[in-house]
Design goal:
By secondary structure, the chain is mostly beta strands. 10% of the residues lie in helices and 46% in strands. It has one helix spanning 2-19; strands at residues 25-26, 32-41, 45-49, 55-59, 65-68, 71-73, 83-88, 94-100, 109-119, 123-128, 133-137, 143-146, 149-150, 161-167, 172-179. The strands form two sheets. Strands 1, 2, 3, 4, 5, 6, 7 and 8 form an eight-stranded mixed beta sheet that branches. A seven-stranded mixed beta sheet has the order 11-10-9-14-15-12-13, with no helix packed on it. The longest helix is centred in the N-terminal third of the chain and has 18 residues, at 2-19. The chain is elongated, with a radius of gyration of 23 Å.
Length: 183
């Protein structure tokens, strides 16, 4: 019953936020505020569709504050489909993004353990403890560690015992060499 009530309150808040005109509203500091539905968001930009159908784009910086349902949050919690108010300056730089709705779930990280059987430029393959094979993609953001400390990629050569943290169906985040090959 509480989930149903929460959904009803979320929908009510969204409809109320959309009922106020998208243009002509100002924040207490005199800064303009635009309202709409989040279409896309990334580290540098948020795009809204206003109630009148116009598309509004705002640049985002490290100084942009984010609030979700009144609580401080990160930009990663903003997801398309949410209702948002964007307080911005005259150059369309977002100062404050206020989002109403359910925040995006954090990606679930998985850690696999095994012995490296192959290491290529874009992938690593393990023989897991259960005897199966697991191949994961490597990209520019993959970090390599040796017993928890930063290390060179070459330590993860075939024969090394490693743990690999990754999100489901995503490139490896961290490859931690627990024991060197041949050691």
């Amino acid at each position: 019953m509480t989930i149903r009530l929460l959904r009803l309150l979320t929908v009510s808040a969204a409809l109320l936020a959309l009922a106020v005109p998208a243009a002509g509203v100002a924040a207490p500091g005199g800064k303009p505020v635009d309202r709409g539905i989040v279409q896309s968001v990334n580290r540098s930009q948020i795009v809204l569709t206003a109630l009148d159908g116009s598309v509004l784009s705002f640049s985002v910086s490290r100084s942009t504050r984010v609030r979700i349902n009144g609580a401080p949050a990160s930009l990663g919690g903003v997801r398309p489909g949410s209702v948002a108010n964007v307080v911005h300056d005259r150059r369309a730089r977002a100062i404050l993004i206020e989002v109403f709705g359910t925040p995006a779930p954090a990606p679930v990280a998985v850690t696999d353990r095994g012995v490296v059987t192959a290491l290529g430029p874009t992938a690593i393959t393990l023989r897991t403890e259960g005897g199966g094979a697991l191949t994961l993609t490597l990209d520019g953001s993959t970090r390599f560690l040796f017993q928890g400390l930063p290390a060179k990629r070459s330590l993860a050569r075939p024969g090394a015992l490693v743990t690999i943290s990754h999100a489901t169906d995503a490139p490896a985040l961290v490859v931690n060499v627990l024991k060197r090959a041949g050691a």
